[in-house]
């Protein structure tokens, strides 16, 4: 049994079809976390399509995504890059054996420069 996460695993978890992407970049152009990401939403979609899952799993982008779905709102083809990012983040968490944050860990990590949207997203994500 292999622990390697495949493109098919990410596609199954996310329910997204990255083949619909026409590489217009509108998703990245509207992303509020664009400057913080090493792989931007349009690159993320392309890398999933190419099967470069290991690189994405090591990316800081999976933790910088605000899950605000601005990328989906701007996508003319409804590709949903944020769902792909979330699927990769979930795959990392699963590989770590559920060794991840709880909702009680979030307040200690807050700082004055953190966007309100990130705080809400974190609480929504870790709240049971």
Automatic annotation (TrEMBL):
<feature type="domain" description="4Fe-4S ferredoxin-type">
    <location>
        <begin position="11"/>
        <end position="42"/>
    </location>
</feature>
<dbReference type="Pfam" id="PF13183">
    <property type="entry name" value="Fer4_8"/>
</dbReference>
<dbReference type="GO" id="GO:0051536">
    <property type="term" value="F:iron-sulfur cluster binding"/>
</dbReference>
<dbReference type="InterPro" id="IPR009051">
    <property type="entry name" value="Helical_ferredxn"/>
</dbReference>
<dbReference type="InterPro" id="IPR017896">
    <property type="entry name" value="4Fe4S_Fe-S-bd"/>
</dbReference>
<keyword id="KW-0408">Iron</keyword>
<dbReference type="GO" id="GO:0005886">
    <property type="term" value="C:plasma membrane"/>
</dbReference>
<dbReference type="InterPro" id="IPR051460">
    <property type="entry name" value="HdrC_iron-sulfur_subunit"/>
</dbReference>
<keyword id="KW-0411">Iron-sulfur</keyword>
<protein>
    <submittedName>
        <fullName>4Fe-4S dicluster domain-containing protein</fullName>
    </submittedName>
</protein>
<dbReference type="InterPro" id="IPR017900">
    <property type="entry name" value="4Fe4S_Fe_S_CS"/>
</dbReference>
<dbReference type="GO" id="GO:0046872">
    <property type="term" value="F:metal ion binding"/>
</dbReference>
<keyword id="KW-0479">Metal-binding</keyword>
């Amino acid at each position: 049994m292999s622990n390697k996460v495949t493109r098919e695993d990410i596609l199954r978890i996310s329910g997204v079809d990255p083949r619909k992407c026409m590489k217009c970049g509108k998703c990245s152009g509207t992303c509020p976390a664009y400057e913080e990401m090493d792989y931007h939403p349009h690159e993320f979609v392309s890398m999933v399509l190419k099967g470069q899952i290991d690189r994405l799993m090591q990316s800081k982008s999976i933790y910088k995504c605000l899950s605000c779905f601005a990328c989906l709102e701007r996508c003319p083809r409804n590709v949903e890059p944020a769902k792909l990012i979330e699927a990769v983040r979930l795959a990392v968490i699963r590989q770590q054996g559920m060794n991840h944050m709880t909702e009680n860990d979030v307040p200690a990590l807050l700082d004055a420069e953190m966007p309100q949207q990130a705080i809400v997203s974190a609480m929504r994500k870790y709240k049971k």
